[in-house]
Amino acid sequence: MSSSSLKRRFAATLAVGATTLGLVTFTSAPAQAAAICGGDVSVYGTLADGRLTYTAISPNTGNRVKTLIGPNLGFTPKAMATLNFNTVLVTSTAGELYRVDVQTNDNALAATATRIWDGGWTFDKMTYDGAGHLYGTVAGQLHRYNVSQAKPSGPAHIAKHAVIDEGFVLKTLAAAGDDVLIASTADGRLLSYQINGVGDWERSDLKSDGWSAVDSLVSPGGGLYYGRTNGGMYWYHDADPTDGKGSDIAYHSDDPVDASGWTQTLLSAFANDCTYRPPTPPTPTPSTRGGQIARSEVMNRAANWLARDVPYNQGASASDPDGDHHYRTDCSGFVSMVWHADTSYTTGSLPGVSSTISKSDLQPGDALNTQDGHVVLFEKWVDKAAGKFSYIHEANTRDDMMRGQDYLNGGPDGNIAGHAASGYIALRYDKVVNG
């Protein structure tokens, strides 16, 4: 990002705004991002004196295109969330909720603030996911509201309040997509949350450290993240924001949006500026009995028996999804079926067609097996850092096919699916392939 290119972009009025913020630029080769955006990324903010700011950032290069400073909002802001390109929700330190309507952010920033809620809005952080869900945190609780209008006027349009859960002690909070949140913590972790409902959420640790200096985090969607550190704004691109992994996050430390000057007390991005379009995966070759099988097919075969609620019976068998083969309808027969194995193995013989792996390396389609009588199919991580996962199994004659959740250590009772967690080993079928 060169200072000469910025000079060509900025009109005189914008240069005044940039000077007021103390923004600086430097020369660096441009990086590239792959998020699908309709235009420049929109970031709103507030200054210490209560004035509203607007910044446009090029999603492909990370260059700041312009910065505008608008009017004083007339109250002391505490938390903010951007609903759309011209509507921002801002709370006051008095617990009021305001709707800020932006008339223009072209060559000047003009906006008006309307109080739409008189009290009770005490959140320390807020964010909007671009898909009708407003989130806020206070005292470690995560709250969610449904927003039904582009310009809500109060409780009629911001409703269905729910407390998702406790334990959300976060330093920063942003929305990365529909019910998808990203956050950083004081100890430097970068986290991702998939919120499914009250008490139903999944956490992924994208980074275990390195984010403690980030004091503000925003995202326009599409896997683009912007984090402020010591007044500088840095940008990051997550190649696949849906995979719960941080290994594919690209850091552009040598080409920040700005090295300093971001002095806003609050920052918030329009969460629907950018989208992520996953690549079309190649169609896996359907497996043959006893042959190689893709993980996606393993899980599809599992879903078939789960949907059919195939009854548990050690003396019976049932057809697999293609109807060509039958497998014993107990826990190990089920795992044999999903692996499309050449026969119905037992918990004692499954290790003969699989390899022992670390439990922390479990992936969809692997199994947890105890040779004293039970095996479950690993479905996915719910909270990997905590060892929480979901699984599918032929449970027993009372429950038949079931989906469950537990911890690798068995949680409070020390059991997984009624068997001692310490007795389970993690298995990976010898013929499973990624895909």
What does this structure look like?
The structure is a single chain. The chain is mainly beta and 435 residues long. The protein has 4 helices and 34 strands. It has helices at residues 3-9, 12-21, 295-308, 331-338; strands at 36-37, 41-46, 51-57, 64-72, 77-84, 87-92, 97-104, 110-117, 125-128, 133-138, 141-147, 158-165, 172-177, 180-184, 190-197, 200-207, 214-221, 224-229, 232-238, 249-251, 266-269, 274-275, 293-294, 313-319, 326-329, 354-357, 367-370, 374-383, 388-394, 401-407, 415-416, 419-420, 425-429, 432-433. A 6-stranded antiparallel beta sheet has the order 26-33-27-28-29-30. A 4-stranded antiparallel beta sheet has the order 4-3-2-21. Strands 5-6-7-8 form a 4-stranded antiparallel beta sheet, with no helix packed on it. Helix 3 packs across helix 4. The longest helix has 14 residues, at 295-308. It is elongated, with a radius of gyration of 26 Å. It starts with a helix and ends with a strand. Residues 1-33 have low confidence and may be disordered.
Judging from the principal axes of the Cα atoms, what is the shape? elongated
Gyration radius, rounded: 26 Å
Largest sheet: number of strands, sense, barrel closure:
6 strands, antiparallel
User: Cα distance, first to last residue?
Assistant: 39 Å
Roughly what fraction of the amino acids lie in strands?
35-45%
